[in-house]
């Protein structure tokens, strides 16, 4: 893994996402999907599972049975007709995900693999391969593949729910939002790095609908600069992370949008913790990082991890 190459992977996010938008205008990655799907099982590890958790929640809210499982679970839904199994693996070679698909390959369920490596063993085991088209991540850290996984999960959602939306236009707005954060980083990054640089690690908080943002952000702080970091859901925060604020110098990135943000911020105020809001103004936050189109929750879902990814990249390269 390499910090400088990771930073250049981040810098190419807008270009790669714009190119994906163009592809989705020209071709339907799910053209080969069979009809009659009535339940969806996502499988993945690390960042490849984070996006799946959000995708499954969104599908359930639209009335489609969907679940995201750790590939490493000993067993999950039994194979059955009408089940679409979606293993997600950027490399297409994570041992746990390859093992998990064995229970489904060649059976009644259909397998649609999301991967950035169409020549991988995972792709070979699938009925349908959905190429992430994220390009090579030369830094060795999943970042563009995370963003493209979310984009293609939104495409799958449109396909399964029949929701008529202009997904390429959404991806273009997310590319603009990413470019805006990158271009204006001198305005927000130094203060953010300073405020998050505490003795007890970094915490990340997001609503259930965007929990992947908190999870991926915490992973980036661990994987690059190897700092202690953990993610928490915004409502759950008052039942979980609140216990850290009394004894630790608690410093967090908050991705706002939960109806329980205010409840958490009451504790933050009382305990003198440090919270930085990303993509919106939050009362008593130490700072707010804004970017174009940040009022659209789907743009936020696709974009907001870039804040943590850039902090992680600069901390890492300073080591
Ligand atoms: O998507 P893959 O290739 O299965 O990798 C799963 C996870 O493992 C990692 O490669 C780290 O080991 C992460 O980047 C990723 O989140």
Automatic annotation (TrEMBL):
Give the matching InterPro entries. Answer: GlmS/AgaS_SIS, SIS_dom, SIS_dom_sf
Reactions catalysed, semicolon-separated, are: D-fructose 6-phosphate + L-glutamine = D-glucosamine 6-phosphate + L-glutamate
Query: What keywords are assigned to this protein?
Result: Repeat
Quick check: keyword Thylakoid in the entry? Answer: no
> Does the keyword Repeat belong to this entry?
yes
Q: What class of enzyme is it?
A: transferase
Sequence ranges assigned to domain SIS in this UniProt record: 30-166
E.C. number: 2.6.1.16
List all membrane-crossing ranges: none
| Matches recorded under SUPFAM superfamilies | SIS domain
Query: What is the name of this protein?
Result: Glutamine--fructose-6-phosphate aminotransferase [isomerizing]
What does the record give as the organism's lineage?
A: Bacteria, Bacillati, Actinomycetota, Actinomycetes, Streptosporangiales
